[in-house]
Amino acid sequence: MQGFTIRRVVEKAVPLRDFLMQDMGISRKMLTHVKHEGDIEVNGMHRTVRHELEPGDEVMVRFPLEAPSLDMVASDRSIRILYEDDTLLAVDKPAGIATIPSRLHPTDTLANAVLGYYQRIGLSSAIHVINRLDRDTSGVVLFAKYGFIHHRFSELQKANGLVRTYKALVEEEVTPQTIDAPIGRAENSIMERVVTTEGQRAITHILACQPFESGCSLLTIRLETGRTHQIRVHLRHIGHPLIGDSMYGGTARMPRHALHSASARFIHPMTGDEIQIEAPIPEDFRTV
Predict the structure, then answer these.
(1) Residues 6 or more apart from 169 whose CB is under 8 A from it?
(2) Cβ contact 193:181 at 8 Å
(3) What one-character-per-residue DSSP string does 269-281 give?
(4) What is the mean pLDDT of residues 44-49?
(5) What is the CB neighbour count within 10 angstroms for residue 77?
(6) 84-98: average pLDDT
(7) Are 64 and 2 spatial neighbours (Cβ–Cβ below 8 Å)?
(8) How far is residue 37's CA from residue 30's CA, in Å, rounded to a whole number?
(9) Of 28, 197, 190, which is closest to residue 102 (Cα–Cα)?
(10) What single string gives the DSSP state of each residue in 110-171?
């Protein structure tokens, strides 16, 4: 039994290996896996990667069947699906649960819930998380249903082709601006980050600020880089920490930090269509 299958028609003469890696976007490691446990056909006939392709040839790649890690436990927690197709799943993560299992949170995570969903719909696959969110951050989380799709999204992210926007609550009005300040680990802390000249470059764009409930301001933010706690650290850096962010000095008007992954926009690696996925502002933002 084999898993995900893709087909492409060849436009110009080229070695099969080059077509698979350059035109179809299959990594060298993944291609080795396909050669040993999957299959490659040209016009319905099995071929090795040394085969020379001609214009009009149809190439079909069957990837090996995937399975979750043996220590991955399926959960019956319900998920709110924002978008789904044959290769991709987008879920609205609630605040208060981790994205993936860890020592502190080994089973009741969003990934465990997605595995449970896969089992209910009969999908045999590993869990491939495209973007992670902090435990207390809500909003859009993308899952690739297959390793090949996960690889394509990794390449997309390197090229800044996955555009995500966030909503954040702060106490006062903030002027739209770009924060370009390096972030590194705080001294004597495993979790906390700080702005430091010894850190990695981090760029946060505050696109808009509008009045919100209870005198708060609602910020619309886009990240250009993806450092740990980047939005939280940068907002503290400019004197406007997130409401509820006890680690970075926010007021205790919420039991969690007020950060929400509101949207994700990208060109679908399989269809070429532009996809826009949105998660509505959570109810706890309206009750601060």
Answers:
(1) 212, 216, 217, 218, 219, 242, 243, 244, 254, 258, 285, 288
(2) no
(3) TTT--EEEEE-PP
(4) 94
(5) 16
(6) 97
(7) yes
(8) 10
(9) 190
(10) HHHHHHHHHHHHT-----EESS---TT-EEEEEEESSHHHHHHHHHHHHTT--EEEEEEEES
Catalytic-role residue among 134, 136, 245, 284: 134
Question: What would the pLDDT profile of 239-277 be if each residue is shown by its tens digit?
Answer: 999 999 999 999 999 999 999 999 999 999 999 999 999
Structure tokens at 121: 């719909």
pLDDT above 70 for 2: no
Which three-class secondary structure string do you get for 82-99?
EEECCCEEEEEECCCCCC
Up-side HSE of residue 232: CA atoms within 13 Å toward CB? 26
In whole angstroms, how far apart are CA 166 and each of 38, 52, 77, 137, 221? 40, 47, 25, 10, 5
pTM score > 0.85 for this model?
yes
Given a contact cutoff of 8 angstroms between Cβ atoms, the answer to whether 178 and 127 are in contact is: no
Q: Give me the phi and psi of 92, to 5 degrees please.
A: -90, 100
Q: What average pLDDT does the segment 68-93 reach? A: 95
Clarify whether 180 is annotated catalytic: no
Cα dihedral across residues 120, 123, 125, 131: positive or negative: negative
CA 208 to chain centre: 23
CA distance 50 to 68: 32
> In the numeric block, which tokens belong to residue 231?
């939005």
Both tokens assigned to 29:
């490691």
